[in-house]
Amino acid sequence: MRKGELTHQTILETAVRLASRVGLQGLSIGGLAEELGLSKSGLFAHFKSKTELQVQVLEAATVVFTGRVVRPALGRARGEPRVRALFDGWLTWDRDSLLEGGCIFVAAAAELDDAPGPARDTLVQGQRDWLDCLAQAARIAVAEGHFQKALDVEQFAHDQYAVMLGFHHAKRLMRDPQAEARARRAFDALVTAARTPTS
Amino acid sequence: MRKGELTHQTILETAVRLASRVGLQGLSIGGLAEELGLSKSGLFAHFKSKTELQVQVLEAATVVFTGRVVRPALGRARGEPRVRALFDGWLTWDRDSLLEGGCIFVAAAAELDDAPGPARDTLVQGQRDWLDCLAQAARIAVAEGHFQKALDVEQFAHDQYAVMLGFHHAKRLMRDPQAEARARRAFDALVTAARTPTS
DNA sequence: CCCTTCATAGAACGGTCGTGCTTTTCGTGC
DNA sequence: GCACGAAAAGCACGACCGTTCTATGAAGGG
User: Pfam families per the record (chains A, B) (predicted)?
Assistant: First the structure.
């Protein structure tokens, strides 16, 4: 691997961590360079623009996310165990020490939702993939007979993610020590409802 | 009313609308002044600092929120109707034309969750009040016999808000046309579960 | 009608932003 | 070991940031 490729990767790692705290907008090239002990222009040379940096940060975060949350869950048994693993994995991801500011995608979602452009497009695609992943896991749980046949798996994925967003809000903004317990209780209710057929 | 008081109020109205789009961080004094046809320093004189402006924007938004969401719901019948009114009111609030960028509190939550200071404190207090309001409505629904006696009303409030956050994400970031239908379905499931005792 | 008080404008500050251009340093294949 | 190309630094730019100071204009009470 080229020397440049290595620094490029190092920059992105630090950038992801930093962006989770200050956001993609707040992530400044000067600040990032200082954190890494690089010069501003030296760092800038790796990306042609700040937008490109933001896009690559999102892509790098997606790679880490896949490795830390999705892939481990795919190693679990098909059906409900995998669905639960995805949920647990996300909770761990959100409070992980690697992301001092919590899930970077949630932070980015708020600041990009009205800012059209490549960064927003990249984020939306990633979130779509993630929701599809959740829905697919639920679909398998239906096929395995763990969840009821008539379950709306997209709705389940949507609701599951809503619980995660609620956790993020309670934990990171409100600093609610019960946040995780609340999230687990909400998710358990979701799973229970998915199991038993609607009366 | 003093002349200054009037402009002060006008500034805050525009600031709230602008901040819902670009965030509290992105809300610049120069940009806000230009939008209003004022000079930067003339506007600045109304607030001793940018932080103070942010705090007052949050407070002004809270007043509007109370008038548009909370107060109308308090006019509804005690119990489940009022709980539903709070939910409906929030959905309307979030997609209201007044807030082109969606609920300003959700946007602020993401950018302030790791930024200690007066603005964060103000936001957290407002969110606490809002969650208390939701919980209190649920508590009344229990007292009225609409919800089961053993219902954990704080958990219900938490779950209800999570559905709202899920709606915001689906609607504003993902531009999902089904966002509202999904949110209503999720909320109905929550209400149904709150009615029938846990087996 | 004057005089004080208040509201706004104007100009300027130090700082940081993203972004180019030019130079120097350094890793690497021959 | 040298030369070539990549990588990083240095420097400068225009723009915008929050903030301060000073001056000007309008409002309002006597």
Answer: TetR_C_13, TetR_N
